[in-house]
Amino acid sequence: MGLPVYRIELKDSAMKKLESNIWSDSFVSGTMSMDGRRTPIRIRYRGGHTREYPKKSYEIRTAKATYHFNAEHDDPSLMRNALSFHYFNVLGVPSPSTKHCVLYMNGKKEGVYLRIEAVKSAFFRKRGLHARSIIYAVNDNADFAMPEKNAKSSRLLSGYAFIKGGETDRNRLSDFIRSINRKKGTDLSDYLRQRLDIDNYLRWLCGAVLTGNYDGFLQNYTIFEYGKRNKYGMIPWDYEGTWGRNCYGKAVNSDLVRIKGYNVLTGKVLAYKANRQKYKRILERALESTFTVSRLMPVVRKMHSAIAQDIYDDPKYKWDVGIFDTEPDVIREYIEDRRRDIKNEMEQL
């Protein structure tokens, strides 16, 4: 049995508007059908450099939900985002749901896509969480660092896009970044406990480190503020460059990402022994149970088997299908090597 099939229909005028500027974030209207059910939609291109690819990614909005249909063009497995979000959920970090599918555009087959749940208000309602603000980290200025003395003050939030939240929420994030950079000692430790969900943060850090997302510390995450707790939490986003390959699909060493991560906030959190010990326990439990070949490879093989035939029939799949066939082995080898890396680096904590 093949993957679910989504069929998008756009009028000629809408298609021309969409194609006239691939960098535009404007939506056009159309319809989407799946299992005979036809739904009005708004659709636009999404992504950065990937907009120039022949197989483009889309953001699609219905009356009830928003989804990202990712082409995963640079990932020969088309599984890395899905596997990463699956693993973060195992770790207890709220993460987007995913579903592989086949997409048609005006009757033309576009190939296999990964439908990803958007991290917006509905995402939190579905999980019984209330998010006061939702902020995407969109470029490498989202490192929680203070701007250099001569830099414009706008640099402080230049790495973030507010999906939900107003000026008060922007000011709260600015104050948070300034505070973690200026406070020290017990003042900083107390402040972090008050304003950051440290357990969530350390689990998120564990997931980013184990999956090997080099880009996941300075961008490609979502930060949100719990409505009643007034604490920030983290959610992963864009984990295509993981499990032994970078974001362009190039094979990389398993030790590319260090055990302590890279951004300023991580350094502040891990400056305290109690947090380092907690992080170490999270990593140790992961190595004992969840981040193992026996636990993860059945998930990989099931996912790989489910999409294989549609990958072979994908007119825009850019890799040799022989590479796709060996991707489970690449991921298995990465898991084995990454386990060794982490065990060797444990002394740093």
From TrEMBL:
> Could you name the domain of life of the organism this protein comes from?
Bacteria
Entry keywords, A to Z: Capsid protein, Virion
One Pfam family, please name it: CotH
Q: Which PANTHER family match?
A: INNER SPORE COAT PROTEIN H
Name of the protein this chain belongs to? Inner spore coat protein H
Give the species.
Answer: Paenibacillus cineris
Q: What is the lineage of its organism?
A: Bacteria, Bacillati, Bacillota, Bacilli, Bacillales
Q: Which gene encodes it?
A: cotH
